[in-house]
Amino acid sequence: MKPVRVILLDEADREYKRLNEVVGQQIKEEKENTTEMQLLRSIKQKRDFIKANPFYGDNIKKKLIPKSYSVQNLWRVELTGYWRMLYTIRGDEVQIICFILDILDHDNYNKKFGYKKK
Fold first, then answer.
1. Residue 4: in which H helix or E strand, if any?
2. What pTM was estimated for this model as a whole?
């Protein structure tokens, strides 16, 4: 089995850092189990799942992948609070790298994929 790396890119990295800052402040304020804390835990847990099994998420059909991602494959992982984490898998003879492209709430996920509200 090849080693698996999980790397947060661009939007996903910004959202992850923002959440870390918010949760850090909440901890200072002695808040417990906030929505942000739950989301951050969920992201960390799913990241570990992906590292253990790169094909953990739901594979998105090629024709449904938004062109803005410019990837050959896209996987979705559901997070707490109807958030989504999107990643792509790249590999070579030596290792597998899962690039987390986006961490977004349900509304932004729907917009990115062109889904309409009913």
1. strand 4-8
2. 0.91
